[in-house]
Amino acid sequence: MTRAYELMVIYQADLDEAAVAAELKKVAATVEAGGGTVATTDVWGLRRFAYEINHKNEGVYVVLELVTEAPNLDDLDRQLRLADEVVRHKILRLPEREATRRGLLGDAPATAEPAAAEAG
Questions:
Q1: Domains of the chain
Q2: pTM for the whole structure
């Protein structure tokens, strides 16, 4: 069953934009190889950690929204665990309602904006 997931990855702070983009292409290739898709990619940029992780105080945060089947995440999880550039990563399954609201699964619910535009 296809589900929506949110993936947050923290890359080492010393990676430049091109290196982060290359790493994101690897993630996308892994997801697509399993029959999934990367719906959105949001690069938050360099952020300070709340506490020191592996003797580092900063990292490049990236949030991705994925649509795939659960068994396909095993390869992605393994790839991220073994990558030296990754400080931390977390994969969360989005609830059906939230995934639908974001337009990742099924039909997105109608918003109030079109109705307000017609009334005005």
A1: 2-105 (3.30.70.60)
A2: 0.82
